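Duplicate of #3305? Posting structure anyway:
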C-alpha cells in the first residue's frame, strides 16, 4: 500500500486572495471584504472537446471556447452592491472579467463577453447579507485551433 510522501507540500488556501476584477468598470471590482462567506465560485458548462461517433470510432471536435459562470456572494450591506445594481439597470454587458483563486499557484481565469446574468438580493429579514450575483461569459480554450 502506498504511503504518504512527507516531502510533497500540500499548499495553502487563502480566502483573502479571492477577487473578481472587471477592467472596464473598476468601481465594480470585488475584493474579499465585499463578499459573504461563500466568496466567489467559477463553473463551466461545456465540454472542451466534442467526440462525434463514427462507424468505427470517434472524431474529436475541439471547442474554441466554453461557457462559464462566476457566482459571487456580494454583501448587500456595502455600497458595492448598490453600484452593481445601478450598473445592471444601466447595462448588464461588462466585457471582460477575471477571477482570482484562493491558491497562489492557481492562475487567474479571464472571461470574455461577460454579462451580469442573474441577481438574487436575498431575504430582507435581517438574517442574511448576501446579494448573489452571477456573471456569465466565455473562456477561450484550445488556442491551437487558431494556428491552422
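Output from current build:
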Amino acid at each position: 500500500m502506498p504511503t504518504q510522501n512527507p516531502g510533497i507540500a500540500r499548499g495553502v488556501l487563502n480566502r483573502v486572495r479571492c477577487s473578481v476584477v472587471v477592467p472596464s468598470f473598476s468601481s465594480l471590482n470585488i475584493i474579499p471584504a465585499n463578499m459573504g462567506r461563500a466568496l466567489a465560485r467559477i463553473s463551466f458548462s461545456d465540454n472542451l472537446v466534442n467526440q462525434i461517433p463514427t462507424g468505427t470510432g470517434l472524431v474529436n471536435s475541439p471547442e474554441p471556447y466554453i461557457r462559464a459562470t462566476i457566482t459571487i456572494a456580494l454583501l448587500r450591506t456595502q455600497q458595492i452592491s448598490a453600484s452593481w445594481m445601478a450598473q445592471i439597470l444601466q447595462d448588464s454587458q461588462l466585457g471582460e472579467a477575471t477571477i482570482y483563486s484562493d491558491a497562489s499557484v492557481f492562475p487567474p481565469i479571464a472571461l470574455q463577453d461577460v454579462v451580469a446574468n442573474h441577481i438574487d438580493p436575498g431575504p430582507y429579514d435581517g438574517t442574511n447579507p448576501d446579494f448573489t450575483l452571477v456573471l456569465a461569459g466565455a473562456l477561450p480554450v484550445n488556442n491551437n485551433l487558431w494556428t491552422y
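Confirmed duplicate; merging threads. Helices lie at 79-90. The chain has one domain: 15-147.
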